[in-house]
UniProtKB/TrEMBL annotation:
Entry-annotated residues carrying N6-(pyridoxal phosphate)lysine: 284
Protein name: O-phosphoseryl-tRNA(Sec) selenium transferase
Binding site for tRNA: 271, 398, 463
Cofactor: pyridoxal 5'-phosphate
Protein species of origin: Moschus moschiferus (Siberian musk deer)
Gene (name only): SEPSECS
Length: 504
């Protein structure tokens, strides 16, 4: 309501009451004005009434919501279901235009504003998270893998002779397929074992650049966030190699925004060498539905070039989701989540260490991995061939999601390439192990319940080992109710043995 409407209301209701309502309205509008003027995430989160008012104000700026609008084109924001319209807050036109995902749409000023504001807020949060010199970014309605493909396709025009992408191995399918989909040949660089950690083989990377010739290498495709015992790539050294040989550098920072260590690596890499773009997932870092990513970098023109490579308009849903989330949290709320995640990592590490020792296992020493942990399963693998995968399937049937069991000797073919020791990031890791990660949003009760169920699964599998070895038996008269449940669950486990093989 504007001043004229409030003035008209004073003829119906006491002017004092109307003025009070007007002041309340102004407090909402003040927050909106600050957002539009500064383009930064507010320190304190907005309440839902302010958020919904803001979204409504934007939505009525789109032509599909004009009173008396007459659309005679093929895309006029028509929606058959009112439920679908409400689900999207009546933002129907999407973002961008046919030639550029970041372009303004003449018939959708509200959606265009939403897109610009979201990109501005996300840039602010990336700086807050540790990459202080980032200059440009945009939200793209594709997950991390396809967003990486978009980066590679953009580089194709800059490097027409390039055929290869040098890629320090990480056993995750989407990042590998992103290179294949873009039409390039991945050159896999095996990691080297340093203690328990798998780290970047810098000598092998540089030797491969020299062997193939810099002009024939599209880029080096490195990784920050990953499953232990692999740790983030040596980004600073890789960035220096890229700068020295004039090779682009694309970083897969999938769930690295939540880690100050991963963000620091990107910042340092850009400072000492070359990083052209880094890509991160929306769902993994901001707790929104799957379907979006952020492409960011240190050169405005290159990031704009990537956005123009996207063909056609795009869904506004990922942008809307992350805008609502960041405005609800505020920068203080997001910083609090980052702090809690670090605390949960320490707590998970301590609890997993205690549990591993209780079962004659150990927590792998991976200090360079700030998110993922790994616990050995040597004693299981030594005596019972199916015991390792049995643990994974048991956790799955007991509603533990995200835990990853990695057996020895697994083989996997991805897009015609065969990987030995798949999921372990190397051909021959010394032992089987189990992964767990402390990601943003994890709570103490999640850790406690996971440790309790994992402990129970390990004990149950050992009982099965003893049965098979005729070392000990179980007296049916001594069965508890829990034992009956475990026996029923084991039958389910035999059906689900392979479900834990690939969480990618």
């Amino acid at each position: 309501m504007n001043r004229e409407l409030f003035a008209a209301g004073e003829r119906l209701v006491s002017p004092a009451y109307v003025r009070q309502g007007c002041e309340a309205r102004r407090s909402h509008e003040h927050l909106m004005r600050l957002l539009l003027e500064k383009g930064k995430c507010p320190e304190d989160g907005w309440d839902e009434s302010t958020l919904e008012l803001f979204l409504h104000e934007l939505a009525v700026m789109d032509s599909n919501n004009f009173l008396g609008n007459c659309g005679v084109g093929e895309r006029e924001g028509r929606v058959a279901s009112a439920l679908v319209a409400r689900r999207h807050y009546r933002f129907i036109h999407g973002i961008g235009r046919s030639g550029d995902i970041s372009a303004v749409q003449p018939k959708a000023a509200g959606s265009s504003l939403l897109n610009k504001i979201t990109n501005s807020l996300v840039l602010d949060i990336i700086k807050l998270a540790g990459v202080h010199t980032v200059t440009s970014c945009f939200v793209v309605p594709m997950a991390t893998g396809m967003s990486l493909t978009l980066c590679f396709l953009t580089l194709r025009h800059r490097r027409p002779k390039a055929k290869y992408i040098i890629w320090p191995r990480i056993d995750q399918k989407s990042c590998f397929k992103s290179m294949i989909t873009a039409g390039f040949e991945p050159v896999v660089i095996e990691n080297i074992l340093e203690g328990d950690e798998l780290r970047t083989d810098l000598k092998a990377v540089e030797a491969k650049v020299q062997e193939l010739g810099p002009d024939h290498v599209l880029c080096i495709h490195s990784t920050t966030s990953c499953f232990a015992p692999r740790v983030p790539d040596r980004l600073e050294e890789l960035a220096v190699i890229c700068a020295n040989y004039g090779i682009p550098h694309i970083v897969n920072n999938a769930y690295g925004v939540q880690s100050s260590k991963c963000m620091h690596l990107i910042q340092q890499g850009a400072r000492v060498g070359r990083i052209d773009a880094f890509v991160q997932s929306l769902d993994k870092n901001f707790m929104v539905p799957v379907g979006g990513a952020i492409i960011a970098g240190f050169n405005d023109s290159f990031i704009q070039e990537i956005s123009k490579m996207y063909p056609g308009r795009a869904s506004a849903s990922p942008s809307l989701d992350v805008l609502i989330t960041l405005l609800s949290l505020g920068s203080n709320g997001y910083k609090k989540l980052l702090k809690e995640r670090k605390e949960m990592f320490s707590y998970l590490s301590n609890q997993l260490k205690k549990l591993s020792e209780a079962h004659n296992e150990r927590l792998l020493h991976t200090p360079h991995n700030p998110i993922s942990l790994a616990m050995t399963l040597k004693t299981l693998d030594k005596h019972y061939s199916k015991a390792v995968t049995q643990v994974g399937s048991m956790l799955f049937t007991r509603q533990v999601s995200g835990a990853r069991v990695v057996p020895l000797g697994s083989m996997q073919t991805v897009s015609g390439y065969t990987f030995r020791g798949f999921m372990s990031h190397t051909n021959n890791y010394p032992c089987a192990y189990l992964n767990a990660a402390s990601a943003i949003g994890m709570k103490t009760q999640d850790v406690d319940l996971f440790i309790k169920r994992l402990d129970k699964c390990l004990k149950t599998v050992r009982k099965e080992q003893n049965k098979e070895s005729d070392i000990s038996g179980v007296d049916n008269n001594d069965k508890t109710e829990d034992a009956d449940i475990e026996e029923m669950a084991l039958k389910l486990d035999n059906v689900c043995l392979d479900t834990c093989q690939d969480s990618s």
